[in-house]
Design a protein that fits this description.
By secondary structure, the chain is of the alpha+beta class. The chain folds into two domains: 87 residues, Glutaredoxin; 100 residues, Glutathione S-transferase Yfyf (Class Pi), Chain A, domain 2, CATH 1.20.1050.10. The chain has seven helices and five strands, in the order βαββββαααααα. The chain has a five-stranded mixed beta sheet, covered by helices on one side. Helix 1 runs parallel beside helix 2 and helix 3 packs parallel to helix 5. It is globular, with a radius of gyration of 17 Å.
């Protein structure tokens, strides 16, 4: 399998899961501005959506959308316990959380990365994000991970999205459970290895 990624983007989530699951894979950096892969290929011929991540499977087919990719990867290695079994209520709860992260948090950061966003719109976006982060902090409570003691694909996605707070100067100090959670996830070997591979941290 080959994962097309952009450093620090939401593609970091499936990159982490590939490593957590111990799956054989390669990665290829993609420039989202000019839509070219590191190998000089027009990325839109791989993923017409032009966004990352995209996972090229062994048969040449391509799977897109991060929350779908991470579940696919988890299901390849059920023993990893990165996702509950398909069809169970626990799995639907995981999907519920993934959808919340995608629709409410991930998209909520978008205005803060847009230089054309007005100050008023930025303030509104920050206030909206604070409400959503507060909800996640309450859901997390005193648990190590979103699902309790077990790290899942939802944690990989949440970690990546909340790591963007530092980039847009949104302090997370109001939520000690969140800052402790991010440190806990960052310390996982697979997370560290993925971040090293993407050049996000130094050895």
């Amino acid at each position: 399998m080959k994962l097309y990624f952009s450093p620090g983007a939401c593609s970091l989530s499936p990159h982490i899961i590939l490593r957590e699951a111990g799956l054989d894979h390669s990665i290829e950096k993609t420039d989202l501005r000019n839509k070219l892969t590191a190998g000089g290929v027009d990325y839109k011929t791989i993923n017409p959506k032009g966004s990352v991540p995209a996972l090229q499977l062994e048969d040449g087919s391509v799977l897109t959308e991060g929350s779908v990719i991470v579940q696919y990867l988890a299901d390849l290695v059920p023993a990893s316990q990165l996702a509950p079994a398909p069809g169970t209520m626990a799995r639907y709860r995981l999907m519920e959380t993934l959808n919340f992260i995608s629709a409410e948090l991930h998209k909520g950061f978008s205005p803060l990365f847009n230089p054309a966003t007005t100050e008023a719109a930025r303030e509104a976006a920050v206030n909206n994000l604070k409400q959503k982060i507060g909800f996640i902090a309450n859901q997390l409570g005193e648990s190590d991970y979103l699902g309790g003691a077990q790290f899942t694909v939802a944690d990989a996605y949440l970690f990546v999205v909340l790591s963007w707070a530092a980039l847009v100067k949104l302090p997370l100090t109001d939520w000690p459970a969140i800052t402790a959670y991010l440190a806990r996830v960052a310390a996982r070997p697979a997370v560290r290895d993925a971040m090293l591979a993407e050049g996000l941290i130094k050895a």
